[in-house]
């Protein structure tokens, strides 16, 4: 699926057990609208959700059929081309019971474009199904990004969300706070983000998880690197109202130069006693001793810094297809050369 500005320009179905529709086509089904359209995100949540409801166009709908398995990821691209664009697609992903679905999205913009991206995305992960969602974004220095995302996970379901923003030019601002509701028993989620702040970028990124299913588990992992005059806020919140759950937050930040800044804000909250919720947060710098050691091995200083940053940013994501892991590794190697 590929959308440029507001318009769908390419869509092709390769799996017989996966439906890929434009939002406009999906909205012709009244039953679909009642079940999945604006059910997890409040239209009045903020000015961006309201604007997306009033003026948004486009978006994709992906539905994996019951007990089906996709070997390769479904790909989607949302691209900003025009000079001044408000792009607000509404995306809906549904994994029917027992199915496994991988989706990878690449969102980007032309270098000369000035735009606001405020995509709405709703995930419905049904009983014993698995959804792996990987976002690789590349925005320019004039782009503001305000995605709004929510997911609900039923009994035995798994939702894995991996966000990567390593663009070499930086962006103007990014604010996102996906919310996952572990509604079913023994449901689980893994939320990870890899962010490099460049130039004067302002990035406010986090995840929130609510437990209401007994015996569920969750993990939030963030890696942030600040350079130049960038500012990064790494948020994470886990709230439990169900017993027998486990949740962990890991926030790590790396400051490469004076003038940049990182905040980490982990939160744990529970209304029941039989829970295990933990967090760890750290902000630091590269070790001069390790850099010196690499220099003695004949490695240049720039390459030594890039190697250390790549190692710091590496996050092992469960259930990620090997082909996608390899492509992400190539992307990270390319992006860290410019630090």
Structure at a glance:
The protein has helices spanning 23-26, 30-36, 47-55, 288-296, 301-313, 322-335, and strands spanning 2-4, 7-10, 18-22, 60-64, 74-80, 84-87, 90-95, 100-109, 114-117, 120-125, 130-138, 143-145, 148-153, 158-165, 173-176, 179-182, 188-197, 202-211, 217-226, 231-240, 245-255, 261-270, 275-284.
What does this structure look like?
This protein is of the alpha/beta class and 339 residues long. Helices cover 17% and strands 47% of the residues. The chain has helices at residues 23-26, 30-36, 47-55, 288-296, 301-313, 322-335; strands at residues 2-4, 7-10, 18-22, 60-64, 74-80, 84-87, 90-95, 100-109, 114-117, 120-125, 130-138, 143-145, 148-153, 158-165, 173-176, 179-182, 188-197, 202-211, 217-226, 231-240, 245-255, 261-270, 275-284. Strands 3, 4, 6, 7, 9, 10, 12, 13, 15, 16, 18, 20 and 22 form a 13-stranded mixed beta sheet that branches. A ten-stranded mixed beta sheet has the order 2-1-5-8-11-14-17-19-21-23, with helices on one face. Helix 4 (288-296) crosses helix 5 (301-313). The radius of gyration is 20 Å and the shape is globular.
What features would you highlight for this structure?
single chain; 339 residues; alpha/beta; 13-stranded mixed beta sheet; ten-stranded mixed beta sheet; globular
User: What is the H-and-E element order?
Assistant: EEEHHHEEEEEEEEEEEEEEEEEEEEHHH
What class would the helix/strand composition place it in?
alpha/beta
Strand content: over 45%
Question: Could you give the distance between the termini?
Answer: 32 Å
Query: Helicity range of the residues?
Result: 10-25%
Number of strands: 23
Radius of gyration: 20 Å
Oligomer: single chain
Identify the overall geometry: globular
Uncertain segments are: none
**Tally of separate helices:** 6
Largest sheet: 13 strands, mixed
Mean pLDDT: 92
């Amino acid at each position: 699926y590929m959308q440029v500005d507001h318009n769908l320009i390419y869509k092709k179905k390769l799996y017989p057990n996966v439906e890929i529709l434009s939002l406009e086509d999906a909205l012709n089904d009244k039953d679909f609208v009642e079940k999945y359209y604006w059910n997890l995100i409040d239209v009045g949540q903020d000015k961006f959700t309201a604007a997306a409801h009033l003026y948004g166009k486009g978006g994709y709908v992906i539905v994996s059929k019951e007990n089906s398995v996709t070997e390769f990821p479904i790909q989607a691209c949302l691209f900003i081309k025009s000079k001044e664009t408000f792009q607000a697609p509404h995306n809906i992903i549904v994994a029917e019971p027992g199915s496994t679905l991988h989706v990878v999205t690449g969102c980007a913009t032309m270098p000369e474009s000035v735009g606001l991206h405020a995509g709405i995305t709703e995930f419905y992960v049904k009983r014993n199904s698995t959804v792996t969602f990987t976002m690789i974004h590349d925005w320019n220095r004039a782009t503001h990004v305000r995605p709004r995302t929510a997911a609900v996970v039923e009994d035995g379901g798994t939702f894995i969300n991996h966000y990567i923003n390593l663009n070499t030019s930086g962006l103007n601002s990014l604010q996102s706070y996906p919310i996952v509701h572990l509604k079913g028993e023994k449901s689980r989620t893994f939320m990870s983000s890899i962010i490099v702040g460049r130039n004067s970028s302002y990035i406010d990124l986090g995840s929130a998880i609510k437990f209401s299913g007994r015996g569920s588990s969750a993990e939030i992992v963030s890696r942030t690197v600040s350079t130049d005059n960038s500012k990064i806020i790494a948020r994470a919140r886990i709230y439990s109202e169900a017993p027998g759950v486990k949740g962990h937050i890991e926030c790590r930040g790396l400051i490469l130069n004076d003038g940049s800044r990182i905040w980490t804000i982990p939160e744990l909250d529970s209304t029941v006693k039989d829970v295990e919720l933990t967090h760890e947060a750290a902000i630091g710098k590269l070790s001069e001793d390790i850099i010196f050691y690499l220099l003695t091995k004949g490695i240049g200083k720039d390459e030594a810094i890039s190697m250390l940053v790549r190692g710091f940013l590496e996050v092992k994501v469960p259930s990620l297809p090997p082909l996608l892991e390899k492509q992400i590794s190539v992307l990270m190697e390319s992006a860290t050369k410019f630090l």
